[in-house]
Amino acid sequence: MKKYILFLFALTIISCSNDDFSTQKSLESKIVVEGWIEEGDFAQVLLSSSIPVTDVIDSTNVLDHAIRSAKITISDGQTSEVLRVKNDKNRVPPFVYFGSTLKGEAGKEYSLKIEYLNRVIEAKTIIPKTVELKSAEYIKKNPADTIGYLFVKFDDPLNEKNYYQIATKIDGEEPIFVPAFYGNLDDKNFKEAAVSIQINRGIILFPKTKFTPYFVDGDLIYVKLRTQNKDALDFWNSWQNEIVNSKNPIYPSNTSLKSNINGGIGIWAGYGQSTLIVKTPPKK
Predict the structure, then answer these.
(1) Largest CA distance in the chain
(2) CA separation (Å) from 174 to 6, 46, 232?
(3) How far is it, in rounded angstroms, from Cα 187 to Cα 156?
(4) How many CB atoms are located within 10 Å of the residue 190 CB?
(5) Element at 91 (helix H, strand E)
(6) How far apart are CA 62 and CA 136, in angstroms?
(7) Residue 52: DSSP 8-state
(8) Are 205 and 240 in contact (CB under 8 A)?
(9) N or C, fewer C-beta in 10 Å, the chain?
(10) DSSP structure string for 178-194
(11) Torsions phi, psi for 248 (to 5 deg)
(12) pLDDT for 9-61, tens place per residue?
């Protein structure tokens, strides 16, 4: 399986804006967090320290900034669990903290506490109620094409405030779910409860092959509809804006990424989730 730099490692070099470049060089590195817990699943956390903008970014340097010896505790207010760390060779960096006891439940609040050296980093999140994904379909503009896009349908519950993220994962090619490009949705923009939208493939940092915004014949695609909180929506929208505005996700525009991490940067998010599998036609 191809290896990819995980999303939040781009954060390691964009913890400040370009305007603050000279100041940032003298500051202590920050702890960078990407953590989540989904309904029906266990928590996962990726941890690193920030990399100065002046440093060369390559696989060796990224590994040097991975944090594999922190103590990470997850709690729902009644039950606590200390996460373990594992080596996942399909990821770069290959270290993932994971839970195996405390499974996510909609409506519950989950706290995150990270203890590393002399630092304590904390955050809280609530898992929103899941909204079911009704359908996901691979559509081509022309029948002779070997590429296409996804169209997904779901019903936005009436009289409820919801924020969504649509993510995809190509079997055998991507080890993680990738947020779709412009796949972060606020239901205030829906004209009606029945939602039908086109999904473009999201961007993974440093892929081994050239990025294309479409899917291709032969792909087996996992499609996930996540319900998320406003802080997660703000984080992922700011992440996307950095990519769009700077045209290079490792060199940001002048707007800092949003964060709900106290004592660090990044995101700790609870997600409701509904997943479907889409089979595309065999390659010709």
Answers:
(1) 60
(2) 11, 17, 22
(3) 7
(4) 14
(5) strand 91-92
(6) 36
(7) -
(8) no
(9) C
(10) EEEEEEEEEGGG-SSSE
(11) -155, 115
(12) 444 444 444 334 334 433 467 888 989 999 999 999 999 876 554 444 545 55
